Structure formats: C-alpha cells, structure tokens
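We modelled the chain as a single entity of 250 amino acids. Its sequence is:
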Amino acid sequence: MTRSASVVSSLGKVNQLVEPIVLARDRTFPIVDELSGLFADRGIRRGSTIGVAGNAAVSLAVALSVGVSRSGGWVVAVGLPSVGSLAASELGAELSRWAFIDRPGNQAGDVIHALAASVDLVLVGPGIKLRTGHGRRIVARMRERGTSVIAVGNPHLFDSRVDISLRIKQAAWTGIGSGHGRLISRRVEIEATGRGANASPRQQLLWLPDRKGRLSIIDRSEGPRNSSRSIRAENRKVFSELAEPTLRAG
C-alpha cells in the first residue's frame, strides 16, 4: 500500500485519536525556541494559515512542525515528496505522529479537506492546486477544527491572504570556496509579517544548520548560539537536498 493510500484509509482512526486531544489543548501549537520569536504568540495559533517562501522554505516548514509532533500532535505533508521520514526524524520529529501524501493528484482538495478534521498540522507543497472557492471552504473547516496549515511556496493557495508570512530573504552556505570544499553551515535570514498581533515585522537570523549540524540563533553581537537540541551532522546533507529550486527567491 502506498503512503497516500495508507493515510487516507486511516483518517477515521486518526480522527478518533486526535479529537479529544484538540479540545483539551491550549490555543497554540508549540514550536522550537529558535523559531518562536517569529510569532506573536510564540507558537502556531490553532486554525491559522502560514505561508513559507524562499530558498530553504521546505527546511523551514519542517522545522516549524517539529514541536507539534513532539508534543503528541499529528502532522501530514501533502505534495512534498522531498520531505521524507529521514528529514523529519533528523530534525527531532516524532515519526509515529507523521504521515506523507506525496502525490495526491486531482484529489488534493478532498484530501486536505478530510485532513482538516483529523490532524493538527498540514504541510502543503507548491505544486498543489485547488478548485476555485475550495480553498476558502478548507480554511473555514480548519479554523473550526483548530487545524493549522503551512503552505510552502504558494501563499495564495487558499484564495486568501495567509495569517503569517515567513519569507527567507537570504540563504547562503559556507564551506565552499573557489569551486571546491564541503558544505558546513547555512545562514538564513527570515522575515515574518502577518495580520493582527503579527502585523509588526519580525526578523531572525539562524544557522540552518550550523557547523555542528544544529539549528541555532545567530546573535549579531555574540555570534551563533547553539540550541540544547542536537541535530546530527548528517543534517547538512538533508537540508541541502530539501532546498528545492522552485522555491528559491529571485
């Protein structure tokens, strides 16, 4: 059975497991400390829509989802075949709470609509297309059920402005000089804008990853500060593979 078929066929069971948890939780999903400063609530508000764009957008979307699965929530990646179990686990995600629907085809809208009643967070790839008007109905269902969505490389997917837009303004690898060398770390500059409490722009400098293979904040005065959450050095390869050309800023 394919991953897509497995996820769709088990939505009923997932819904039974998730619903009582959703009703008992706070109004935000947790995110890792290194990214919390980009959000007014220092977490992902339930039922919100988030747009992520720019080089390394897929890596950022995966990093945003780590806290959800680690806290017991369900995460599904739709139309993101470049995100596999290796990438998610290397970032610290709880894979028993993850599912992947790589190629939903013409049924993408129906799949996402069904997921809105069954999981906590949905990551949607840039190639996903929805019928006119379908996006607004999906968002209404997500807000009702407390399901959040991260649209990667497609901020207008749901026919309306996203609640929070994260744009990677700059991303540069270190370690390559004069046409040779090894990728060591990637410096990214992220800008967050949005509506309501998130209207004021926020910016964050990060190593994604740093030279030790970790996600860490870049302090302009003190240099990089490592997080307590270690990510193995192999992440350099994982993050490099996740940088899709179609998501790179011009």
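As a brief sanity check on the tokenised model: The longest strand covers residues 180-194. Residues 4-8, 20-25, 223-250 have pLDDT under 50 and may be disordered.
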